[in-house]
TrEMBL record:
This is Uncharacterized protein. Keywords: Signal. Residues 1-28 form the signal peptide. Residues 28-54, 95-123 are annotated as: Disordered. It comes from the Bacteria. Residues 101-110 have a biased composition (Polar residues).
Length: 123
């Protein structure tokens, strides 16, 4: 069997395993009541409303809230460079997280999530 066929077969076997027979659950450092325990489910594909040049990475905060962190780092001298945070129950119902998106470093207010270039210094 050539390498491409082997990789394809292994990939399909992995997808079949995780999509139908092996439940995926995420656990947090703090115990949660069973009704609020985070979980991961595979369903039909949907469009992603907030694409940037880096894929969003999901995370569960210590309070149990679900967030996605991604960045935008366009290449022109005046283009956006920022961390973008989204929150919701699933990837399908995410909305921008205004508090995290506008957060600043208390020790240096010019270090901001919504402008990582230090634009406050150069403008």
């Amino acid at each position: 069997m050539n390498t491409l066929r082997l990789r394809t077969a292994l990939g399909l076997a992995f997808i079949a395993t995780i999509s139908g027979t092996m439940p995926l659950t995420a656990t947090a450092t703090q115990p949660y009541p069973p009704s609020t325990k985070p979980s991961v489910q595979v369903g039909p594909t949907a469009s992603y409303r907030y694409p940037t040049d880096t894929p969003g990475a999901g995370l569960i905060d210590k309070d149990g809230s679900f967030h996605v962190q991604q960045s935008a780092a366009l290449y022109g001298a005046n283009d956006v460079r920022e961390w973008a945070f989204l929150t919701g129950n699933t990837f399908d119902d995410l909305i921008p997280d205004k508090d995290l998106n506008t957060a600043t470093n208390p020790a240096n207010p010019q270090d901001r999530n919504d402008d990582t270039r230090g634009a406050a210094i150069t403008r």
